[in-house]
Amino acid sequence: MFDFFKASFSPIFLGEIKIGEHFYWNLLNTNNALLLLHGQVLITVTLVCSFIILFSFIANNQLKATPDGLQNASEYVTEFIRDLTKTQIGTEVNYLNWVPFTGTIFLFIFISNWTSLLPFKLISLPQGELAPPTSDINVTVALALLTSIAYFYAGIRKKGVLKFFKARLNPLTFLEDFTKPLSLSFRLFGNILADDLAVNVLVLLVPILIPVPLMLLGLFTSAIQALVFSTLSAAYIGESLEDHH
């Protein structure tokens, strides 16, 4: 009976609970599931980050007084993110300090979500396929934890440790600090995973034309999810900066 309990709750057993096939890198050539790297996520995350860096460099390499082309698109995105951050954090503090964080979160999620519609399926892997990074729970939880760290950092920096955590003595406030990252991560993960699975099923069943409307709808919902995540992140930071009397 003890052996059954031990086997049932071992890390390897829990690691086998997954959705679909995944590609792992076994760098140490061991059978320990805790030492496996999620290869397909690292590949897609690298591609997304490389695209954002390359686009930023090309668009802002030679700035013009009258923007056009990629510079115009870059400035539009920057202005949009700045207005979003200003609306959520307010002007009582220097909201511009948080524009890079909000912008990074928004762009990463936005581009990651749209990768579900790119021809990643044509790239052959030993196991699994290249899926959007945000369809992996590890990525969305990491993004949510980054928001939580920013949330606590902002409040502690402005109010000090004692004053900030004194407000956390309220049971409801204490509970919110745990539910915020959970809701952020699972909302993004669930929506993107469901959309990616629906498109994959339709492509397998009816590969011509029929999946296109669903893919176009996926473009819209993917953008909405990026907007919701970044808006809530900025709102949480703004909440931690508020002075409660």
TrEMBL record:
Main location: membrane
PANTHER family: ATP SYNTHASE SUBUNIT A, CHLOROPLASTIC
Keyword set includes Iron: no
GO molecular function term, any single one: proton-transporting ATP synthase activity, rotational mechanism
Subunit: F-type ATPases have 2 components, CF(1) - the catalytic core - and CF(0) - the membrane proton channel. CF(1) has five subunits: alpha(3), beta(3), gamma(1), delta(1), epsilon(1). CF(0) has four main subunits: a, b, b' and c.
Function: Key component of the proton channel; it plays a direct role in the translocation of protons across the membrane.
Membrane spanning residue stretches: 33-58, 95-117, 137-156, 188-210
Keyword hit for Signal: no
Localization: Membrane; Plastid, Chloroplast thylakoid membrane
Protein name according to UniProt: ATP synthase subunit a, chloroplastic
Gene3D superfamilies linked: ATP synthase, F0 complex, subunit A
Family: Belongs to the ATPase A chain family.
GO CC, any one term: proton-transporting ATP synthase complex
Sorted UniProt keywords: ATP synthesis, CF(0), Chloroplast, Hydrogen ion transport, Ion transport, Membrane, Plastid, Thylakoid, Transmembrane, Transmembrane helix, Transport
Protein topology in the membrane: Multi-pass membrane protein
Xref: InterPro entries: ATP_syn_F0_a_bact/chloroplast, ATP_synth_F0_asu, ATP_synth_F0_asu_AS, F0_ATP_A_sf
